[in-house]
Amino acid sequence: MSSTTERRDRALPLLVGAASLAGGVGLWWALAAFSGLPSYVLPSPGQLVTRAVSLWQAGGLSIHLQQTLAEVLQGVALGSVIGIALAVLFVRVGWIERLLMPIIVVIQVTPKISIAPLIVLWLGLGIGSKITLITLVTFYPVLINMVGKLRGMPSTMHDLADVLNIRRGRRALLIDLPYSLPALAAGLRVGVLQAVTAAVIGEFIGAQAGLGYLEKQAQDNDDIQVVMICLILLSAIGWALYTLVGLIERKLTERFGG
């Protein structure tokens, strides 16, 4: 009975989300069909699907989608590793936190749209500059959430690790990471959403491919259909990564809990 209730509780948000999405698409279709707005101002969902299929078959859309996905995934992975490593280091060695945290805070409060041109000038128009920008916005929420969680760890867990003579590297893997998993997941949820935004900013400033690059070209050409297609795909990437983080967290929690 509890298993059935749990599956129902998990399915309910999906059903509510699907119904909300269907309602939004229906409202969009109604506005496009009956508001009298021209299609170059508000294209219908059907027109967007037709244009997207055409772009995909031509090969252009898939190239830009793969470029943005590659940037986001690599930047999130690198930012997560840096955030986790710094969190463990800051909790273990206080003077390093006091040394580095002011620099990290200054970087984080600086608008990323101001940093992006500098990174592009340093690293060029390729994927490296986009990954660097995404890493900058991803590691911070992971770092802050994990530091807060690790500092709240019961002292008995540290005592047990000392009694068992667990070295610091193994302690981070066996104790710190499992204990801070909810905080890590919370930071990653924020990070993946910021990562998509950072990718678009980087591609707007200077790029050779990517959905942000394609959207900027479409904006310059007054092509609202392509602009909307890019926006929908970027939203889908953010939603998919956000959902994936939650799924991985649930699976790992069940495993460690078992």
TrEMBL record:
This is NitT/TauT family transport system permease protein. Residues 65-245 form the ABC transmembrane type-1 domain. Belongs to the binding-protein-dependent transport system permease family. It is found in: Cell membrane. Keywords: Cell membrane, Membrane, Transmembrane, Transmembrane helix, Transport. It comes from the Bacteria. It is a multi-pass membrane protein. Gene3D superfamilies: MetI-like. The chain crosses the membrane at residues 12-34, 72-91, 177-206, 226-248.
